[in-house]
């Protein structure tokens, strides 16, 4: 394999564009994670940017190693498939767990902090009687 100094200009431009796009999307996801206030809002930004950012960086890596190696390299596609499948599933499970927790603690709207009036005595009575609390 050759060194990166022998990379053709057209390939270097495409690789740089994909890397800038992928890192820009990752930055947008990080900003969204910090900026949004509720847990449910914070789930959305990293999910999209992780998938698309990983795809752009993966394309840059495929192009770089394919051009330098003189053969088509597809190893990175496995990484992309893994990230594309696992990230949304993981965040969906986190959202379901948070929704279950909020319903159990009787939070108002999604994202609102749990109210102090959680009717603990009523929950304990329902549990003692064998009923499921809402």
Summarize this, please?
With 134 residues, the chain is mainly alpha-helical.
Comma- or semicolon-separated keywords:
134 residues; mainly alpha; 4 helices; 72% helix
Describe the model.
By secondary structure, the protein is mainly alpha-helical. Helices cover 72% and strands 0% of the residues. The chain is built from 4 helices and no strands.
Q: Average pLDDT across residues?
A: 80
Low-confidence stretches: none
Largest sheet: none
Shape type: elongated
- Rg, please? 23 Å
Could you give the count of β-strands? 0
Helix content: over 70%
Topology of this protein?
Blueprint: H1 9-35, H2 39-69, H3 75-104, H4 120-128
Helix pairs in contact: 1-2, 2-3
